[in-house]
Structure formats: structure tokens, C-alpha cells
Write a structure and sequence with these properties.
seven-stranded parallel beta sheet; Rossmann fold; 7 helices; alpha/beta; 15% strand; Sc_DH/Rdtase_CS; oxidoreductase
Length: 259
């Protein structure tokens, strides 16, 4: 029996770099997958590729009514909702705090933080109806330190840590576990392409060479951790934070020739 047979999983940003990896893996493990996002062409194409156990739903994570429609669609199509992955996120173009306009600040927090808040709020009753389940918030290693020029993104991900822990406390007795994953630099368009309004991508000025595992992360690295956290193998884990960064936060590693 596959780990997610007869379960339904909703992944926000489900057609993006990490999101599509998550969706495909859940589907391969037997889940019904609901691909939430605003890119209907990519989302529908992924759902068509996967077949009858996949649905695309248009989901603007910053809009409560859009969330309500997405959760209703999941339950209507598959009978229940068992797992929510708050994966959708956007990056701000690099700028100092003094140079960051309020519209940019609000947009980043609306998607990265309010989106997860609304997801938990609207999905929790559905997970309760399913007799429990799991929520995972995809945060960032930027939630564990400061990063110059990325104040909106950093603030949104720091706040997501507190939201994760509060939700874990509120929902635990309903058999709903809530955890967070903090990816480092993962090889997706999010890293390889400039953010809207930016002239350079993060990958243009980041090298993993000094770190313990000297490569960029792959979406599948994050996916494997996500599958564990949302499975019954992690039934005693809630309110926790899991860093997956190849040693980025540890700092430069001792090089082999001097070890």
C-alpha cells in the first residue's frame, strides 16, 4: 500500500518549481491531488498529465473566498481533504527597507503570510471532518536570520514560524499536525530567474561551494521531507521546524584538503 492511498492533498503554488515536484510525488504515492494556483494553463496541463486523481483549482491564496472555493472543490471531487501544503510564495525585488514601497511590502506579506493563515483557517474544518490530517508550511532559511535587501520576504517567513506553532497548538487535539519546512537555495525558477522588478536572480550571486554539501538543493530534496512530515511515519511530530539547506546556515565548511 502506498503512503497516501485514499487521501487528498491540496498544494498551493502547485504548478511551480517546488509545487509540481510535490504534486507529482504525492500522486505517485497514491494521493488525489488538488493543484492550487493562479496559472490556469500550467495547472491544468499538470492535472491532465497526471490523470483522473488530479484536479486544478484556481486559487488566489490572498483571497478568503478563493480558499473556500478550493477546499469545497477538493471535498466535492474526492470526498475529503487530508493534507494541506502551503507552498505558494513570492520574492520581493532586492531593495533596502528605506527603498521598499508599501505596495511591495503588502503584496509579499499577503501571499506568503496571509495566504498561509487563510489556508489554515479554511482548511482546518475540512481536515477535522476527515478525522485529522497534516498541514505543512513551506517557509525558508531566511526565517532563521536576517538578509539585507529582502525585508518583506524575511518578515513574512519569520511570521510564518509563529503561525505554524500557534496552529499546532490549536489543532493538535483535533489530530491535525502542523509543521514547517525551511528550504535553503533550491534550483527552481524562483532562484534562477529574477523576481518581478529585479535585474538579477539569486543564483547569479550565490555559490554553494563553501558549504558542507556544495550544490544547490533540488525540489525533490524538499519533496522527500514533505512526504515524511505529512505521512503517518511522522505522527508524533507537530509544531516543528525542519531546515533543509545543505549546511548553508552552518557557515563555510572545512575544506577536504585541510580536514
Amino acid at each position: 500500500m502506498r503512503r497516501f492511498d485514499d487521501q487528498t492533498v491540496l498544494v498551493t503554488g502547485g504548478a511551480g518549481g517546488q509545487g509540481a515536484s510535490h504534486v507529482r510525488a504525492f500522486h505517485a504515492e497514491g494521493a488525489n491531488v488538488v493543484i492550487g494556483g493562479i496559472d490556469a494553463q500550467r495547472g491544468a496541463a499538470l492535472a491532465d498529465e497526471l490523470g483522473t486523481r488530479a484536479r486544478f483549482v484556481r486559487l488566489d491564496v490572498a483571497d478568503e473566498s478563493s480558499w473556500s472555493a478550493a477546499v469545497l472543490a477538493a471535498e466535492s471531487a474526492f470526498g475529503a481533504l487530508n493534507v494541506l501544503v502551503n507552498n505558494a510564495g513570492v520574492q520581493n525585488p532586492p531593495a533596502t527597507i528605506e527603498s521598499t514601497d508599501q505596495a511591495t511590502w503588502s503584496r509579499i506579506l499577503d501571499i506568503n503570510l496571509t495566504g498561509a493563515f487563510l489556508g489554515i483557517k479554511i482548511a482546518a474544518p475540512a481536515l477535522r471532518r476527515a478525522a485529522g490530517g497534516a498541514i505543512v508550511n513551506i517557509a525558508s532559511t531566511m526565517a532563521l536570520g536576517g538578509t539585507a535587501h529582502y525585508a518583506p520576504y524575511v518578515a513574512s517567513k519569520w511570521a510564518l514560524r509563529g503561525l505554524t506553532r500557534t496552529a499546532a497548538l490549536e489543532l493538535g487535539r483535533d489530530h491535525i499536525r502542523v509543521n514547517a519546512i525551511h528550504p535553503g537555495v533550491i534550483a527552481t525558477p524562483f532562484i534562477r530567474e529574477p523576481a518581478a522588478g529585479a535585474t538579477a536572480a539569486i543564483a547569479d550571486f550565490y555559490s554553494p561551494e563553501p558549504f558542507a554539501i556544495p550544490r544547490l538543493g533540488e525540489p525533490t530534496d524538499v519533496t522527500r521531507l514533505l512526504l515524511f512530515l505529512t505521512s503517518s511515519d511522522a505522527s508524533f511530530i507537530t509544531g516543528s521546524e525542519h531546515v533543509i539547506d545543505g549546511g548553508l546556515l552552518l557557515g563555510p565548511a572545512l575544506q577536504a584538503e585541510t580536514a
